[in-house]
Amino acid sequence: EMMNTYLEKDVLTERNPFRKEYRILRKNDQQVRWVFGQGIAEFDKDGTPVSLIGTIQDITERKLDEDKISKLNYAVEASSEVIFMTDLEGIITYMNPAFTTVYGHKAEDVVGKVTPRILKSGEMDESAYKYFWDEILNKRVIVGELINKTKDGRNIPVEASNNAIVNDI
């Protein structure tokens, strides 16, 4: 019904091409599917719509993936565990709100900065940082206790689990 209203208003009355995501019920198996439709109406010489020309693409899998990503994002943002990401040079690219709660740094103060310079407590040997990055770059998970520094200068012990997430982005 919503698609019919959309077609009547935007496509058939105002003669706009349509590009719309909507749900359909497939007749053969009664599955609800998400589709992306695009096209344009054809009119006769009196201005009466006679046909629609276009394509419809099934985007159900993409919509399900978007829903999963949205839920995962919510879980990471709502987590009381500190979650942050860096690039290969150790520059922080993302941090969740728990990072601010534990370390006192806000995203605008931390994102784009090199991790050890922000969190380095001075109580850990430089070889520990080298070992850490060697292990991460070799795609190994590192679990252990670290001593990090908060924004106000306090050194705090943290139980950490770190691993590389490799992608082509």
Task: Explain what this protein looks like in three dimensions.
By secondary structure, the protein is of the alpha+beta class. It is built from 6 helices and 7 strands; from the N terminus they run αβββαββααααββ. It has helices spanning 2-13, 60-78, 97-103, 107-110, 115-119, 126-137; strands at 18-25, 32-43, 49-58, 84-86, 92-95, 142-149, 155-162. The strands form 3 sheets. Strands 1-2-3 form a 3-stranded antiparallel beta sheet. A two-stranded antiparallel ribbon has the order 4-5. The radius of gyration is 26 Å and the shape is elongated. It starts with a helix and ends in a 7-residue tail after the last strand.
The main sheet orders its strands as 1-2-3
Give the proportion of residues in helices. Answer: 25-40%
Q: Sheet bearing the most strands, described?
A: 3 strands, antiparallel
The portion of residues forming beta strands comes to 25-35%
Strand tally is 7
Please mark out the parts with pLDDT under 50 across 5 or more consecutive residues, or reply none: none
Number of helices: 6
Write down the secondary-structure element order: HEEEHEEHHHHEE
